[in-house]
Design goal:
The chain contains 9 helices and 3 strands; from the N terminus they run βααββααααααα. The chain is mainly alpha-helical and 204 residues long.
Length: 204
């Protein structure tokens, strides 16, 4: 089965700023073409390998075409704006479920996660006597590690950003998602709320 995360549809190309003539001239034939058995439409599915698309987008030829008057059609602009609004609405409406863990278990997981990230040093979690324990770790550092671990545990919510490319609302959606995740972590663990607010402010 084709891994669709490595491909872009024609609609996806248009949302990235491609016009049909640009697709024809710069990409040529799709990498995969056929009928989607999950749909009733007989229209063929055309998929373009994302790596090839991104490589072309870095070329001077693409820059010239994209800068040409009328290169981005009104329909493409409207489609991108609809997608931006839909993603922002989905992020605002999505319930954020933060794992609820006993304090000792959260500390253990946070320290272990820090070790897996390769953060080792004298007196740190990967140093002598670390082995996943929080003894000897400064309270402020432990709070930061716990927020980092919980933020990682919620990374599945980043799929809400699927479909936004480049500057078409991506940065705005990322900021909103980060703010919601930190807000949810702070609500679930009040002792981490201050660090969550600090990060949310720093990452705006």
């Amino acid at each position: 089965m084709t891994d669709r995360t490595t491909f872009v549809t024609l609609t996806g190309l248009r949302e990235r700023g491609w016009t049909d003539p640009m697709v024809h001239d710069l990409l040529g034939e799709p990498d995969i073409q056929g009928r989607d058995p999950r749909r009733w439409s007989i229209a063929p599915v055309r998929l373009y390998r994302l790596a090839r698309v991104e490589a072309v987008e870095r070329t001077p030829e693409f820059a010239r075409c994209a800068a040409a008057p009328g290169s981005r059609s009104a329909a493409a602009e409207a489609g991108a704006e609809r997608r931006r609004r839909a993603v922002l609405a989905a992020i605002r409406a999505e319930p954020i479920k933060v794992p609820r863990l006993p304090a000792a278990e959260l500390e253990r997981r946070a320290v272990r996660h820090r070790q897996l990230l390769g953060a080792r040093g004298p007196g740190g979690p990967g140093g002598p006597g670390g082995q996943g324990r929080s003894s000897g770790v400064a309270a402020g550092a432990l709070v930061r590690w716990q927020v980092t671990y919980l933020r990682h545990a919620l990374s599945r919510y980043e799929t809400l950003l699927d479909g936004l490319f480049g500057s078409t609302g991506r940065a705005e959606a990322e900021r909103l998602l980060r703010a919601r995740l930190y807000e949810a972590i702070g609500a679930a663990y009040p002792q981490l709320a201050r660090e969550c607010r600090r990060r949310a402010d720093a990452e705006r």
